[in-house]
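thought: user wants a sequence for this fold. calling inverse folding tool.
action: design(structure=
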C-alpha cells in the first residue's frame, strides 16, 4: 500500500493528465485539403522589343583619292593662257590654274585654321540639303584670268586663291556593295579680284570651266569606289549572332536577329566609317539551349530617302549618331526581355522566415504560426499554406494571383483570400479565429521585391556583353538599367519578367 503522501501526488497527476487530455480533445483541428490544381494556361508571350546591335564598318577610299590625284585623271595644271576663249557676251579671255592634291574634308566646313577658303566653303554649303550619305573632297587652287579689260591674278598679282570642293554621294547597295557618284562640284574664290560689273560673267565662267573639268575627273575616279564591298564583314557578324550565347549552364542569350540597316558614311581621312545596325529581339531563356537561327544574311534594308543632311555621321563605336531619318527608323539601344524563374522552395523559406512566430489573437484565444510555404496552382494562381498551433492547430490555405507594381518594383498577391474549403472549415471549427487579421498579415509579409531577379539579370549581362565571341568577333556593351515589368506563376516557378536597357556593338577584326 502506498503511503498517503504518495497517493495524493498520484491523484493530482492523474487529474492534470485528465484535464490536459480533455483540453487537447477540445482544441480545434483545422486541416483542409489543398486546393485543386487549375487547368494549365500558357505563360504570356514576351512583348516584341526591337533592339539595335551596332556593327562599325570602315572603307578605305585610298584608291579613289589616288585616282583623283592622278594628273592624267584630273590635270594638276589647267593651262588655257596661250589662246583666248570667247565669252557668249563677246568678251575674249584666257585663264590658267594649278591645284594641290585632293584630301578628304569634313562636311560643311572645313579648312584647317579657319582660312578664308574655309569660310567660303561654309557659305557654299549653307542651306544645302542632300538626300544620301556623302563624303567630301577638297583641294586648294591658284589661278589667274586675263582679258582686255580684266587682269585677275595676272602679273604681279599672281596668284589668286580658290578652293575646289566635291561631294560624293555614297551608299550601300542591298547586296552590301558600295555605290558612289559625284553629287556636286564647286570652285569658290578665297580672295576674289575686284571686278567691274561687266567682268563678273567672265570670272563666273572660268570657275564653271574649272568645276566641269574637276567633275569629269572625279566621275572617272569614283568608279574605284564601286568595286568595294562590306559583305564578308557583315556575313561574319550575322552568322555569329545567329547562335545563342551561353550565360550559365541553364541560361542563354538569344538575339533573334531580323534585318539590317545603316546610318551613312562619314570621315575626314582615306578611311570612312559607317555604322550598320542589326535589328534584333533579344531574350534570355532558361533551360535547354534554344536552336540557332537559320536565316542567311538578308539584303540591306534601305529606309526611305531622307531630305535631311547626314553626311557628318559620327559613327565611332560609342559616338552619338545624328538625328536622321535612317537613324530614326533604326531601333536605338539594346533591350533584353528576361523571364527569371524563382523556385517555390526558396520563396517558401523566405516567407516562413517572415511569418514563423507571429501571433494572431482574438477574445483571449490565439494561434502561433509555425511554418509558411508557397506553391503554384496553375492558371497564374499561387497558394500560400500557413501552419499554426495554439488554441487551434493545423493549417489554412490562401489563394491569389501575383501582381507587379512597376512603381515600387515589388510583387504582391492580388486578391489574396482563403480557399473555399479552408474558409468553411474555419467557420465551423474555430469561429473565433480572426480571418481578416490573419489574411492581412499574410498579405503584408508576402510582398516580394524584384531585386534578386534584376540583380541576376544584370550580372548575367554585365559578364556577357563584353567578351570575345570568336577569334575575330568581340562584343562591347553596357547595362544601363534593369527593371521588373511583369510577373506570372506556373506550377514550377514564379517568373519575374524584366526589361534590360543598354547598348551593344560588335567589332570585327577582319577588314572588309
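)
observation: tool returned 512 residues.
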Amino acid at each position: 500500500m502506498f503511503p498517503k503522501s504518495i497517493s495524493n501526488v498520484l491523484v493530482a497527476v492523474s487529474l492534470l493528465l485528465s484535464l490536459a487530455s480533455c483540453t487537447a480533445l477540445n482544441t480545434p483541428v483545422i486541416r483542409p485539403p489543398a486546393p485543386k490544381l487549375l487547368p494549365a494556361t500558357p505563360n504570356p508571350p514576351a512583348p516584341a522589343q526591337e533592339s539595335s546591335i551596332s556593327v562599325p564598318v570602315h572603307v578605305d577610299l585610298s584608291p579613289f583619292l589616288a585616282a583623283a590625284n592622278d594628273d592624267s585623271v584630273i590635270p594638276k595644271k589647267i593651262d588655257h593662257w596661250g589662246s583666248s576663249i570667247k565669252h557668249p557676251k563677246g568678251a575674249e579671255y584666257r585663264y590658267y590654274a594649278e591645284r594641290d592634291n585632293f584630301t578628304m574634308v569634313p562636311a560643311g566646313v572645313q579648312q584647317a585654321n579657319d582660312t578664308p577658303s574655309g569660310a567660303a566653303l561654309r557659305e557654299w554649303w549653307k542651306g544645302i540639303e542632300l538626300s544620301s550619305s556623302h563624303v567630301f573632297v577638297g583641294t586648294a587652287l591658284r589661278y589667274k584670268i586675263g582679258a582686255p579689260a580684266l587682269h585677275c591674278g595676272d602679273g604681279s598679282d599672281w596668284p589668286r586663291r580658290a578652293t575646289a570642293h566635291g561631294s560624293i554621294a555614297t551608299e550601300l547597295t542591298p547586296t552590301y556593295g558600295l555605290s558612289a557618284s559625284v553629287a556636286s562640284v564647286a570652285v569658290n574664290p578665297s580672295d576674289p579680284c575686284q571686278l567691274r560689273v561687266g567682268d563678273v560673267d567672265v570670272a563666273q565662267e572660268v570657275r564653271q570651266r574649272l568645276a566641269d573639268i574637276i567633275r569629269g575627273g572625279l566621275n572617272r575616279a569614283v568608279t574605284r569606289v564601286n568595286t568595294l564591298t562590306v559583305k564578308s564583314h557583315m556575313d561574319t557578324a550575322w552568322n555569329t549572332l545567329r547562335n545563342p550565347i551561353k550565360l550559365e549552364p541553364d541560361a542563354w542569350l538569344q538575339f533573334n536577329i531580323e534585318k539590317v540597316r545603316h546610318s551613312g558614311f562619314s570621315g575626314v581621312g582615306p578611311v570612312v566609317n559607317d555604322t550598320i545596325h542589326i535589328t534584333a529581339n533579344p531574350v534570355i531563356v532558361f533551360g535547354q539551349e534554344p536552336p540557332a537561327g537559320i536565316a542567311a544574311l538578308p539584303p540591306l534594308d534601305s529606309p526611305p530617302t531622307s531630305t535631311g543632311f547626314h553626311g557628318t555621321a559620327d559613327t565611332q563605336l560609342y559616338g552619338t549618331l545624328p538625328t536622321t531619318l535612317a537613324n530614326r527608323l533604326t531601333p536605338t539601344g539594346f533591350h533584353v526581355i528576361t523571364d527569371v524563374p524563382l523556385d517555390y522552395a526558396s520563396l517558401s523559406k523566405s516567407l516562413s522566415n517572415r511569418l514563423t512566430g507571429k501571433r494572431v489573437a482574438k477574445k483571449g484565444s490565439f494561434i502561433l504560426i509555425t511554418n509558411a510555404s508557397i506553391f503554384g496552382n496553375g492558371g497564374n494562381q499561387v497558394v500560400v499554406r500557413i501552419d499554426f498551433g495554439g488554441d487551434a492547430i493545423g493549417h489554412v490555405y490562401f489563394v491569389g494571383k501575383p501582381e507587379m507594381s512597376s512603381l515600387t518594383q515589388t510583387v504582391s498577391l492580388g486578391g489574396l483570400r482563403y480557399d473555399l474549403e479552408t474558409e468553411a472549415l474555419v467557420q465551423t471549427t474555430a469561429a473565433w479565429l480572426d480571418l481578416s487579421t490573419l489574411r492581412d498579415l499574410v498579405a503584408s509579409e508576402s510582398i516580394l521585391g524584384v531585386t534578386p531577379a534584376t540583380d541576376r539579370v544584370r550580372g548575367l549581362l554585365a559578364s556577357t556583353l563584353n567578351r570575345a565571341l570568336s577569334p575575330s568577333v568581340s562584343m562591347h556593351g553596357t547595362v544601363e538599367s534593369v527593371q521588373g515589368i511583369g510577373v506570372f506563376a506556373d506550377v514550377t516557378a514564379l517568373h519575374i519578367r524584366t526589361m534590360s536597357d543598354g547598348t551593344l556593338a560588335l567589332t570585327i577584326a577582319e577588314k572588309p
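thought: summarizing for user.
answer: Here is the designed sequence. The first strand starts at residue 29 and ends at 30.
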